[in-house]
Task: structure prediction
Amino acid sequence: MQLRSFAVCAALALAASPVGAAPASMNFTAAWTHVFETDLGEGGTVALSGLTVTGGATWGLSQTSSLGLQARVDVDNWQFDKPTGFGGLTPWQATNRFSLSLPYAMRLDNGWNVALTPSVESTGEEGASSSKTLAYGFTGMVMKGFAPDKVIGLGLAAFRNIEETRFFPFFVVDWKLAENWRLSNPQQVSPSGPAGLMLSYQLSPQWELGAGAAYRSYRFRLATDNAVARDGIGEADYMPVFAQATYRGQGGWRFDVYGGAMAGGRLKVMDHSGDNDIAKDDVKTAPAMAASFSTRF
Result:
């Protein structure tokens, strides 16, 4: 059911995009993430493995503006063992996220740039009612380029995400601090939170090393037969802290490997309205690893 809603949103997004013309560029990313088994605060364990696939295209509308279409699919497999804080019941199993966005960018005078991105997302446990999984929102950014490698700006995001409305400002940066050193945002802004920060060092034209952190808060509709809260809401909060190695190949592709930890984790189950907590527990810091392949053409 989630996939059906996503297909409808995809059709509407395609109708709004200039698909009659060849795109100026296209992109594709596939990523795998694994969070190793760790203890829950009140007893029991949890682990997570996830796969993310992202693809899209960008069309030039004029010499100073462009419109893109981005689609993303996340499939997360949660593994719980005797979670005492949830009455020994599995709070949720596999969760899926399907999202579409239409990023619009315009270049202004004197190095100023504006980016506006409406988006829609469906996120829920397998078996959730598709009509109750939708989230939507809008992100706006204003950036100032002082040089090709010195860009700074501010953004504001607003999302209606499964019985909750969230607003948050965030910092935009892509700044060369010194020879081979750069400060940038490692993740995109989404209903799960702002982009985070990463400090990187360019070893060679092909190799780059980096370290960073971000804050993530995923919210999703639970299945209609969920053991803890039927048709309720699940939420997972944590802070990824990571080190990253990147290899850039010829032709616009890159391969990234990550190692780090998921810190400050907290899991929560709420009723269908999100007004009342039914059960929650803290998650001990867990080692994590990830890898991704991306290309532009």
Notes: The two ends are 33 Å apart (CA to CA). The chain has a mean pLDDT of 92.
